[in-house]
Write a structure and sequence with these properties.
Blueprint lengths: L1 E5 L13 E2 L4 E5 L10 H11 L11 H4 L3 E8 L2 E8 L5 E5 L6 E5 H11 L9 H6 L2 E2 L19 H11 L4 H25 L8 H66 L7 H9 L5 H56 L1 H66 L10 E6 L2 E5 L6 H18 L4 E4 L9 H12 L4 E6 L8 H10 E4 L11
Parallel strand pairs: 3-12, 3-13, 8-11, 11-12
Antiparallel strand pairs: 1-2, 1-4, 4-5, 5-6, 6-7, 9-10
Helix pairs in contact: 6-10, 7-9, 7-10, 10-11, 11-12, 12-13
């Protein structure tokens, strides 16, 4: 808890020897009986928030006259004391002291918030600390501080506030993964919607989807008509011919060349028979006088007869090759006719082919557009279904928590006689993105102030919320008896409550006055301002 605070520029409590000291429950910052403005009550509430890692004090106009302001403060957790300082000019850094405000090291504001998050046992993610405690820190400088009890700042959505509520009760974990998926789906859908708004992509509507389906069907019928007529015969024939022609002709030319070569060899063999005669053997007799020439001539005559038989066979084979060559030449002529036919077709088909190409291009474009629309509509449907599932699960988890808080508010409302019988404010979570908080039958500013303080006191008691900071505006519109009751409830808290309050002399309640006297940690009025010389 926060145990002390001082600033060297304060009018009082301006040194480490004389700091403002805080108690473990109610701490009252008391203003004058005239409700004096510009004495520093609201600024001090901003400073309190500043010590918890807040940013409101950085925007305070006093820095224009005071220059840089450094706030020194200390926390106590269990039996250990941790001392720090933080300045307006260097608010993104926090000085952490190892002794009594002498020796320090710098840490980032993120590290400091993470320290508080861990010490207050709120989790492990520094980015969550301010969002969690921010809804319990209400400043007079807020746009409408008691309009939304769950939102940390005005720029947050009601959905953010509901998530803070669940986290403070430790019940957000079951929804965390669903929320990531839901956010991812919605991010994709939002990106498309933004692109469609700028006409970068087609607008995905069921009407456009239906219209495109009809156009695609019509274009497809036109293509079918062309393909079943002109293209299915002549154009298809052209495609086949141009695809197979080169291979077919090359094959035929190769076969013909081979057959011509074979025919040439056969003709040569048919003409190569050489006849021997007796004079050819005269030289043989010179070297071999005893040889039997007659026997040799008989063998030669046998060979001559054999040669006649072989010649007849060669002639027959030559005729066979010539027949085959004739067939090959006929096949080549046929292929050449196909080429001529394709060439004639090419001279008459361009207009038809252009029309076919134009229709096909248009069809492809519309099919692509329809596919995109189908995907986007499917995404939207997925988003809708998943969001409904997420919403259903969230309401299932948040309902008993809301009932518990509302019941505690009702108990607090009736604990003291001065509050008993007055309407009790009610929180209603309608969906994952919408909630209401109001007192039935009474929407006055005093009632709303009372309601939001009751709500936060109930949250402080039931959840892991570590402290509560409420500026004067929460109370100055309420009835005196109501103010007394609320202060007593704050005093009964087991956690730190910081309340700014003024104009209390007319409240005739002795217990209330005793509490104020005991719990006032700082008293400010026109003669005792927060900052000296202001």
């Amino acid at each position: 808890m926060l145990i002390e605070l001082f600033c060297e520029k304060f009018g009082s409590c301006n040194s480490k020897a004389n700091p403002i000291r805080f108690g473990e429950n109610l701490n009252v910052i008391r203003g004058g009986e005239e409700g004096d403005n510009s004495v520093g009550k609201s600024t001090f509430m901003q400073i309190l928030d500043f010590t918890f890692g807040g940013e409101a004090f950085e925007k305070n106009e006093l820095k224009n006259t005071l220059g840089d302001v450094t706030i020194f403060f200390a926390f106590k957790f269990e039996d250990s004391i941790y001392r720090f300082s933080r300045s307006i000019e260097n608010s993104s850094k926090v000085s952490e002291y190892s002794d009594v405000y002498v020796t320090a090291k710098e840490v980032s504001i993120i590290e400091f918030r993470n320290f508080l998050l861990i010490k207050y046992r709120l989790g492990t993610h520094a980015k969550d600390f301010r969002s969690l405690v921010g809804c319990l820190t209400k400043m007079v400088t807020d746009v409408d501080p008691f309009a939304d009890p769950l939102r940390s700042v005005q720029v947050e959505s009601e959905e953010d506030g509901i998530i803070h509520f669940l986290k403070l009760f430790g019940e957000y974990k079951p929804l965390e993964e669903m929320k990531r998926t839901n956010d991812s789906n919605n991010k994709s859908k939002s990106a498309y919607d933004a692109a469609a708004k700028k006409n970068f992509v087609v607008k995905a509507t069921k009407k456009e989807q239906k219209s495109l389906s009809k156009e695609i069907e019509s274009l497809q019928e036109e293509l079918d008509d062309i393909e079943s007529g002109f293209l299915s015969s002549l154009y298809a024939e052209k495609i086949d011919a141009t695809t197979d022609l080169k291979y077919s002709l090359d094959s035929l030319f190769l076969i013909r060349a081979k057959m011509k070569s074979e025919l040439k060899i056969l003709k040569k063999n048919a003409m190569d028979g050489v006849n021997a005669n007796k004079s050819d053997y005269s030289e043989l007799l010179q070297f071999f006088p005893g040889v039997n020439i007659r026997n040799i001539e008989e063998v030669d005559r046998f060979h001559e007869g054999l040669k006649e038989v072989l010649k007849a066979e060669i002639d027959e084979e030559i005729q066979d090759v010539k027949t085959k060559l004739a067939l090959i030449n006929e096949a080549i002529s046929c292929e050449k006719e196909k080429v001529e036919k394709v060439e004639r077709l090419s001279r008459i088909e361009p207009l038809v082919l252009k029309k076919y190409a134009d229709i096909k291009s248009s069809l492809d474009a519309k099919q692509s557009a329809k596919k995109q629309i189908d995907e986007i509509l499917q995404l939207k449907e997925t988003c809708k279904r998943f969001e409904s599932k997420y919403n259903e699960r969230l309401l299932e988890i948040v309902k008993p928590l809301v009932e518990t808080v509302n019941a505690e508010i009702a108990v607090m409302n009736d604990t003291f006689e001065i509050l008993k019988g007055s309407p009790s404010p009610v929180l209603t979570v309608k969906s994952s993105k919408k909630y209401d908080f109001k007192t039935p039958g009474d929407d006055g500013s005093g009632t709303r102030s009372k309601g939001i303080l009751l709500f936060h006191l109930a949250m402080l008691k039931l959840s892991s919320a570590p402290f509560l900071i409420h500026d004067t505006f929460d109370l100055n519109q309420a009835q005196h008896t109501t103010i007394a009751g609320l202060v007593k409830l704050g005093n009964a808290s087991t956690k730190q409550v910081f309340l700014a309050i003024d104009k209390i002399a007319s409240i005739a309640d002795n217990e209330f006055k005793r509490i104020i006297d005991e719990k006032t940690v700082l008293k400010l009025d026109f003669n005792h301002k927060l900052f000296a010389g202001t």
